[in-house]
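Sample intake sheet
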Amino acid sequence: MYDIETILSQVNTSRTSTLDANNLLSSLMSYSAAEIREAYKDVLTSGEANYLSRQVYEAQKKIKKPKREF
């Protein structure tokens, strides 16, 4: 099982500036799964990159979820 905090920490170490987990996840929302794998192939395994891309996708779904009006 993968841990998103560990994966984001690994990604953060490869960046020129560090971001907190929420901002880092947000910054990856414009990346496709292939772009995430390519951008971080030196620090993440393919499984970790795939897991990260799924987490990014799930975060996007939560943001775009329409609010129900009563």
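Comment: The first helix runs from residue 4 to 13. Residues 4-8+21-63 form one domain.
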